[in-house]
Amino acid sequence: MKKEYTITVYTENQVGLLTRLAILFSRRKINIDSLNTSPSEVPGIHRFTIVINESEDTVRKLARQMEKQVEVLRAFYNAGDEIVWQELALYKVPTDEIAEKVQVERLLREFGARAVVIRKDYTVFETTGHREETDRLIRVLEPYGLIEFVRSARVAIIKASKGFHEQLTDFQQVNSRQSTVDSQ
Amino acid sequence: MHDKSPMPASAVSPTSDGNAVVTTAWPETTGAQALMQALIAEGVTTFFGYPGGAIMPIYDALFDFGDELQHVLVRHEQGAIHAAQGFARASGKTGVVFATSGPGATNLVTGLADALIDSTPLVCITGQVFAHLLGTDAFQETDVINITMPVTKWNCQVTDASELPEAIAKAFYIAASGRPGPVLVDITKNAQLQLFRCPPYQPCTYIRSYRPKPIVRESYIAEAAALINQAEKPFILFGQGVLLGNAEAEFRAFVEKSGIPAAWTLLGLSALPTDHPLNVGMLGMHGNYGPNVLTNSCDVLIAVGMRFDDRVTGRLDKYARQAKVIHLDIDPAEIDKNVKATVPVWGDCKETLPLLTKAIKQKTHPEWLELFRHHTREELETVIEPEMNPMDGPITMAEVIQILNELTQGDAVIVTDVGQHQMVASRYTAFKQTRSNITSGGLGTMGFALPAAIGAKFGAPHRTVVCIAGDGGFQMTLQELGVIQQSGLEVKILVLNNRFLGMVRQWQELFNDRRYSSVDIISPDFPLLASAYGIPGSCVEQREHLHDALVTMMETPGAYLLEVKTGKENNVFPMVPQGCSVSEIRLK
């Protein structure tokens, strides 16, 4: 059964690695719903956050194939309830419409949004939250002439994770560098 | 002449942590010279390639290293990479390839894909346009890194000579360690020409993010041993992992102590002598009857260094559902990929097999083994005997192989192409020595055999090398006859000519209602073609001349091409039709 999984990949910072990872999805004809690259808590170690909709069996195989890449340290996959996640969205709307027809205050409070820029011709709101929340604000703003909308990739923290410092120490110990994948 | 003598020891000042620091006393070399020194330091002696514009500085440097490095000039870059594969498979060393940018590099792609799927260690060096021209559609520029990414274990581009020694060291380490595979290093022309102070070569032995071998877990060994000890109908499947791990002796000890019948995948062939009493034959689509049928009767299936390819398993949802599966593999991504493992024994089988052997009881399984023998007798009667000893009609491929066995005594390196002859040769060739069967398994690359046989002869110069190809595959890379001519190489070439693209024809006969679409192939006069390359040869069509013709091939000094005209519409049986279960194998 397909469901949404968030894959967290710890990697070296290497040109071309994004393609190497992307190939693993595209060869199975899997669409990536969201992809974010970011530094991690460990200096020099990068972190990819990838969201896909697939069966657990496929996601597990993908994670193993990612870990097989020379520059990948670990790949974890988690269902929605195992992570804390956020996406950021920006909405550009005509200022007069908003000022006249919508109670801006109510909007900001209800959606936890904030105005990033207010100009005569347009206002840009920002909100962060889950997909449903940012989607809901689109629907609210659409009647008032939503000019532009954009949503960021997902960033996620694994609830059960103790971070990567310890794992990296393990990787760096010559004696234990043969240890592997406990993600069984 | 360039100075290629080793650097004086005084040139290196080791610090307390053992790392060398740059001193001005390090000799100034070009990137290209540094590459030569790196190859020598990695123990490379022979490699295969083809020059061109963007790799000229490397070939210029090579000019001064003729004593240490033997470069084999091929006729097409695909020939170079298949030769390097043959070299690697025969010798156990890493194969090395040189090619220029653009078409030179793209011509390597088939070989890279082949080497990746068949886990062959290769280091491919490609020239690239000057770094400042990257991305400008310069002459012979292609994005080799991105083109080859899905077909390499690792690749990287070097745009500055100072990055080169480390890149080469990593390349050799990654190619040969863990589950081996092909690696490509793309070097821009400016980096080849660039002068830099080159530190003494440091081989790579560790990469932080790379774990070549999973740790061996005692608990899995114990669980696996317990399953094996209580099994009544255990069955071993072995693949190329045994050869790649140099674990033939360990594997044999395991088989003999456990007394378990063992069957091989196409690439596992020759890891255990074919006449070993517990060797019950070949798995898969054209494998032997017993191993296929009994896969669905065994209670414990022990897979050693194999990946449950679909050609081995047939229909997965009807594959060994009754069995507990013990899977030994060095690549964690193979565990549970196709067949769910009851006990995953992660690790290098060179380490895991002895642990397992120690933990199991000495046993025999006479009744179970008798079942295999029973099926063998049935196959012998229905398929093997008529194929090996036909009374009349055209020559069969199996009888050619049988005579070859008699002449080689099972000691030759047999390099096969892809198709019917490959299946027949695999089924019937006798092997006494390991690393004797070289074929394109996973990718099924027609045209593999001739260049791979050339490479195999360079990799195992003291062994007899026989290239067996069909009339179709041979014509895909026949230009490499030029290498045999130029090198004076002793490669025996056996072209089994059925005047059809036989395997496709067989499928069209069986599944497409004999609609023979584009499989009728006209070939040149093969012995005449060989003679154009200065290679003696002959053609045989009559059974009474076959034995003598093969003797002549083997006894003529140097290379020889023997064309054997075999039955046009002979089929390879048994066969597990695609989409069927292994127990639905057809004997005719």
Write the layout of secondary structure elements.
The complex is a heterodimer of chains A (184) and B (588).
Chain A: E1 2-12, H1 17-26, E2 34-39, E3 45-55, H2 56-67, E4 72-79, E5 83-94, H3 95-101, H4 104-111, E6 114-118, E7 122-129, H5 131-141, E8 148-151, E9 155-158, H6 165-172
Antiparallel strand pairs in A: 1-3, 1-4, 2-3, 5-7, 5-8, 5-9, 6-7
Chain B: E1 13-14, E2 20-21, E3 28-30, H1 31-41, E4 46-49, H2 56-62, E5 70-73, H3 77-91, E6 95-99, H4 103-106, H5 109-117, E7 122-128, H6 144-148, E8 154-158, H7 164-176, E9 182-188, H8 189-193, E10 195-197, H9 218-230, E11 234-238, H10 241-244, H11 248-258, E12 262-264, E13 279-282, H12 289-295, E14 300-304, H13 310-313, E15 324-329, E16 343-346, H14 349-359, H15 366-388, H16 397-408, E17 413-416, H17 420-428, E18 437-438, H18 449-459, E19 465-470, H19 471-474, H20 481-487, E20 491-497, H21 502-511, H22 526-532, E21 537-540, H23 543-555, E22 560-565
Parallel strand pairs in B: 4-5, 4-6, 6-7, 7-9, 8-9, 11-12, 11-14, 12-13, 14-15, 15-16, 17-18, 17-19, 19-20, 20-22, 21-22
Antiparallel strand pairs in B: 1-2, 3-10
Helix pairs in contact in B: 1-2, 1-7, 3-5, 3-18, 9-14, 11-14, 12-15, 16-17, 16-23
Please describe what this structure looks like.
The complex is a heterodimer of chains A (184) and B (588). In chain A, the strands form two sheets. In chain A, strands 5, 6, 7, 8 and 9 form a five-stranded antiparallel β-sheet that branches. The longest helix of chain A has 12 residues. The C terminus of chain A is likely disordered. Helices cover 30% and strands 38% of the residues of chain A. Chain A has six helices and nine strands; from the N terminus they run E-H-E-E-H-E-E-H-H-E-E-H-E-E-H. In chain A, strand 6 and strand 7 form a beta hairpin. Chain B has three domains: 189 residues, Rossmann fold, CATH 3.40.50; 154 residues, Rossmann fold, CATH 3.40.50.1220; 175 residues, Rossmann fold (3-Layer(aba) Sandwich). The radius of gyration of chain B is 25 Å and the shape is globular. The longest helix of chain B has 23 residues. In chain B, 56% of the residues are buried. In chain B, helix 1 crosses helix 2, helix 3 runs parallel beside helix 5 and helix 9 packs across helix 14. A six-stranded parallel β-sheet of chain B has the order 5-4-6-7-9-8, with helices on both faces. Chain B has a six-stranded parallel β-sheet with strand order 13-12-11-14-15-16, with helices on both faces. Chain B has a six-stranded parallel β-sheet with strand order 18-17-19-20-22-21, sandwiched between helices. In chain B, strand 14, helix 13 and strand 15 form a beta-alpha-beta unit. Chain B starts with 12 loop residues before the first strand and ends in a 23-residue tail after the last strand. Chain B is an alpha/beta fold and 588 residues long. At the A-B interface, helix 1 and helix 2 of A face strand 8 of B.
